[in-house]
Specification:
alpha/beta; Enoyl-CoA hydratase; globular; 2-enoyl-CoA Hydratase, Chain A, domain 1; lyase; seven-stranded mixed sheet
Length: 267
């Protein structure tokens, strides 16, 4: 296991067996995200990508009460009070979301308890969302008078569709894990005691598959969610061609013929 050394103890990260684990570590505040935590995420992602030893990333919250309950409002007077502070804070949150959304490898959100507001936005950046049956979801913007930008709403709409996106935003309500599954907001709902094992199995299965194939599939699906005139289909075609020209494709064929598990190297 490789543990990352970070500038804040409110985030934790380590790599094991090709899986990069990121933990929002402020359980006393239901893992509300502080400025230091927003700033740490791009640092972690950069490490995962630059070292090349990570094939899947998992996001989780510390403790048993929350994935992420939103931003840490208690520090706003100190770090988000002046126009300059607001500018820097928004830049930090933007960089965090950009880092998660730019990942070419799969990203899984492992959800327990509260996944509210900014926590929902973080979970929406994941490719797969797996929740315990105690998961609670919501975007309370309408109860706070907040405006919500097109980008965030479109991200939700891409996943649950227009009608459920409207229900979530119009009501500002709290939705159960069962509700989230009905909406298509999450991929799986599992008992609390089975959550970590389920996510670990998903992550290990993906990490053992051909990395170039997985990346090409993620790229194609992501391009499909964009407006037609914004899609870079040439890049997807290049990634698919690279798969066919790879050593992994040869290894996959050999392993199939030899009736053994393939050992993919990502090249």
């Amino acid at each position: 296991m490789r543990q990352l050394q970070l500038r804040t103890d409110k985030m934790q990260a380590y790599v094991e067996d090709g899986v990069g684990w990121i933990t929002f570590n402020q359980p006393n505040k239901r893992n509300a995200v502080s400025l230091a935590m927003w700033e740490a995420v791009p640092e972690i992602i950069e490490d995962f990508i630059s070292t090349g030893d990570v094939r899947v990333v998992v996001l989780k919250g510390a403790g048993d009460k929350a994935f992420v309950s939103g931003a840490d409002i208690s520090e706003f007077e100190e770090v988000r009070n002046t126009p300059k502070q607001i500018e820097l804070y928004e830049a930090a949150t933007g960089a965090c979301h950009a880092a998660l959304q730019s990942l070419e490898i799969p990203l899984i959100a492992m959800i327990r308890g509260f996944c509210i507001g900014g926590g929902m936005a973080i979970a929406l950046s994941a490719d797969l969302r797996i929740t315990a049956d105690d998961g609670q979801f919501g975007v309370p913007a309408a109860k706070l008078g907040l405006g919500y930008g097109y980008g965030g709403i479109k991200e939700l709409m891409n996943i649950v569709g227009p009608s459920f996106a409207k229900e979530i935003f119009f009501t500002g309500g709290r939705f159960s894990a069962s509700d989230a599954e009905t909406m298509g907001l999450v991929n799986r709902v599992v008992p609390v005691g089975e959550l970590e094992a389920t996510v670990s199995t998903f992550a290990k299965t993906i990490a053992d598959n051909a990395p170039m194939t997985v990346k090409a599939a993620k790229a194609a699906i992501n391009e499909g969610t964009k407006n037609p005139d914004e899609r870079d289909l040439d890049r997807v075609a290049e990634m698919v061609e690279a798969c066919f020209n790879s050593e992994d494709y040869k290894e996959g064929r050999r392993a199939f013929m030899e009736k053994r598990k393939p050992q993919f190297q990502g090249r």
